């Protein structure tokens, strides 16, 4: 039997080839693009949502003002029950209604929150002291309204003092809060 030939030893090179390096640049590029994309989405989302949140805040302030106006008219009605169905005399009307409302904040328009010396409501001087029972159309007689007169106990005429551009952005327009002698309150569209 013949013996098998001896195995041929592998060729020896003077240096060993290094294994190819992994290229991680693609991973970093993908992560960078994703990061920039997320930041971009955040900016776009903020640009869309912040005005929506601001509109919601303005609508809430308008609703608060309407509620305060309704409380004013309710206070006037409670007062009139105690005084033979007569409305308060115009001078000092907020002070007169104090015991009936128990809340001075209802006389402040919510748009002047940062300015406590400004009130923003006036009493219609044309109906001051009148008898409610003798009114033929109390649902159309303005009682209190948002006024350009901002002082406490303001007294005036809505034809003159009503802000031309309403203070509140509600239902697609600028509106002013007005109360009527039948105690309903309304956000009336301004004349602008």
Number of domains: 1
SSE series: HHEEEHEEE
Give the helix proportion (percent range). Answer: 25-40%
Alpha carbon gap, first and last residue:
119 Å
Based on CA atoms alone, the radius of gyration comes out at 37 Å
Give the DSSP E fraction (strand runs of 2 or more residues): 5-15%
- Overall pLDDT metric: 84
Number of strands: 6
**Low confidence ranges:** none
Assign the structural class, choosing from mainly alpha, mainly beta, alpha/beta, alpha+beta, or little secondary structure. Answer: alpha+beta
Main sheet attributes: strand count, strand direction, barrel closure: 6 strands, mixed
Total of DSSP H or I helical runs spanning 4+ residues: 3
Topology overview:
Layout: H1 25-82, H2 93-101, E1 121-124, E2 142-146, E3 154-156, H3 158-161, E4 168-170, E5 173-180, E6 185-189
Parallel strand pairs: 1-3
Antiparallel strand pairs: 1-2, 2-5, 4-5, 5-6
Describe this structure in words.
The chain has one domain. Helix content is 37%, strand content 15%. It is of the alpha+beta class. The longest helix has 58 residues, at 25-82. The chain has three helices and six strands.
List keywords for this structure.
single chain; 192 residues; alpha+beta; 6-stranded mixed beta sheet; 3 helices; 6 strands; 37% helix
Question: What is this entry, summarized?
Answer:
The protein has 192 residues and is an alpha+beta fold. It has helices spanning 25-82, 93-101, 158-161, and strands spanning 121-124, 142-146, 154-156, 168-170, 173-180, 185-189.
């Amino acid at each position: 039997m013949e013996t098998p030939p001896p195995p041929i030893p592998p060729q020896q090179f003077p240096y060993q080839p290094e294994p190819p390096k992994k290229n991680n640049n693609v991973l970093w590029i993908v992560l960078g693009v994703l990061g920039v994309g997320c930041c971009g989405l955040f900016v776009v989302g903020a640009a869309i949502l912040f005005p929506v949140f601001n509109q919601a805040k303005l609508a809430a302030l308008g609703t608060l003002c309407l509620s305060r106006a309704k409380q004013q008219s309710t206070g006037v009605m409670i007062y009139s029950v105690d005084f033979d169905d007569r409305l308060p005399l115009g001078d000092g009307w907020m002070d007169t209604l104090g015991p009936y409302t128990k809340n001075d904040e209802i006389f402040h328009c919510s748009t002047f929150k940062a300015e406590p010396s400004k009130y923003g409501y006036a009493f219609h001087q044309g109906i001051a002291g009148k008898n409610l029972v003798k009114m033929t159309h109390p649902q159309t007689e303005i009682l209190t309204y948002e006024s350009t007169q901002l002082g406490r106990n303001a007294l005036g005429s809505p034809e003159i003092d009503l802000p031309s551009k309403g203070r509140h952005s509600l239902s697609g327009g600028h509106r002013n809060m007005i109360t009527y002698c039948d105690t309903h309150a309304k956000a009336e569209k301004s004349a602008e």
